[in-house]
Write a structure and sequence with these properties.
The protein is α/β, with parallel strands linked by helices and 359 residues long. The protein has helices spanning 3-17, 61-65, 68-80, 83-98, 104-117, 123-150, 152-158, 163-174, 189-197, 213-224, 236-245, 278-286, 321-342, and strands at 29-30, 38-39, 159-161, 179-183, 203-207, 228-231, 249-253, 264-268, 271-275, 289-297, 305-309. The protein folds into two domains: 3-150, no CATH class; 154-346, no CATH class. Strand 5 (203-207), helix 10 and strand 6 (228-231) form a beta-alpha-beta unit. It starts with a helix and ends in a 17-residue tail after the last helix.
């Protein structure tokens, strides 16, 4: 494929998405808080900006969703496209990705959907669910980047905490031994995290250690919004314990494979998966409260999300410490399965979770 075809395809996508919807790019150099500086007029003439969209280019979940280029491009677009045009652009990108059925990204996402929906689910249903995951992801990322570009009030306007979530937060923030909010990767979980950060309570985010440039950008954004970001590594749990003992709040995901290869093999949708147990260890060692939270798209209002938090709970240690950790972690995963099944097309999990590799 020649560079001319690549550029043409990219320009078609941008032109189609922005038809009548661009809010007007300013001239000169753009810098979203120093995140994405380059001449505005050169944006659509830069092939590298949209290399993930090229069907023949190698693409992985990590390459596409977690590259600094994708994040910075998303931030730029979110500031310069109207909400409707932004969704059209996101849908176009999602359509391109979804058609690459042989790519690791699509195969992994489809495999995860099959695990949730069941082995007997027709292939056509799995394929449609997978395409919908990409569509949901694209829209969620656009809404996140738009809120980041506009500011704090945009984040607050984009989310609603259910009454039981507000009640849970009151309990969590008042607990002297700290609190741990755990969540599957449902819908706009990063936007929900920013909403937590606006509550002005000391919040620590356990982040995945990775060398990708995109995570550096993500973590800097989180720090700018008041999060203390702690990459999961040797010694991280000790620092997290100190934070909790000071009454702080910790937020972490529970459904992504442990990046250090530690964790434990736990039942998840009927099969064993090596998933993290650090949240259970911390709760048992510090007396922190745990609460299972999730975010989902508001079915009645585009660009808006609902945050729900289940009632906080204590963990009781068992006689066998190791077995107690496994048992508690398994129960929490079982509860998260209910959430994921209810919002499976918003489960933005693009990593292989189980030992089996998608065919």
């Amino acid at each position: 494929m020649t560079h001319c075809v690549i550029i043409a395809r990219q320009l078609q996508v941008v032109a189609w998405a922005g038809r009548g919807g661009c809010s007007g790019a300013a001239s000169g150099s753009l810098a979203l808080g120093g995140v994405f500086p380059f001449p505005a007029q050169s944006f659509m003439m830069t092939p590298a900006c949209f290399c993930p969209l090229v069907e023949d280019a190698p693409l992985s979940a990590q390459d596409f969703f977690n590259s600094a280029r994708a994040i910075r491009t998303g931030l730029w677009l979110a500031r310069h496209l109207s909400p409707a045009a932004g969704y059209r652009f996101a849908d176009a990108v999602a359509g391109m990705l979804g058609r690459r059925v042989r790519s690791p990204l699509v195969r992994t996402t489809a495999y995860n959907q099959r695990m949730v929906l069941g082995a007997q689910t027709p292939d056509a249903v799995i394929a449609q669910a997978t395409r919908n995951v990409f569509r949901r992801a694209g829209r969620a990322y656009f809404d996140l980047y738009r809120a980041l570009a506009v500011g704090k009030q945009a984040v607050l306007d984009a989310v609603t905490f259910l009454p039981q979530a507000e009640a849970a937060l009151d309990v969590l923030t008042a607990h002297p031994q700290g609190s741990i909010i755990i969540s599957p990767h449902i819908s706009n979980f990063d936007l929900a995290g920013l909403a937590f950060a606006t509550r002005d309570h000391p919040t620590l985010l356990l982040a995945y250690p990775t060398p990708t440039s995109g995570y550096d950008v993500q973590n800097q954004i989180r720090r700018d919004w008041g999060f203390e970001v702690l990459p999961i590594a040797v010694g991280a749990l000790r620092q997290a314990m100190r934070h909790l003992k000071q009454g702080g709040m910790l937020i972490t995901g529970i459904d992504r494979p442990d990046p250090l290869g530690s964790g434990e093999r736990l039942p998840f949708f009927g099969r064993a998966a090596r998933l993290p147990t650090g949240h259970v260890r911390l709760a048992l060692q510090t007396g922190a409260l745990l609460a299972l939270a999730h975010c989902y798209a508001d079915p009645a209002q585009p660009h808006h999300y609902i945050i729900d938090i289940a009632p906080p709970f204590h963990l009781e240690p068992g006689e066998d410490r190791r077995q107690s950790i496994s048992d508690h972690a398994a129960k929490i995963l079982a509860a998260s399965e209910t959430i994921i099944r209810a919002h499976h097309e918003e489960w933005l999990m693009f990593y292989t979770i189980w030992d089996e590799q998608p065919g």
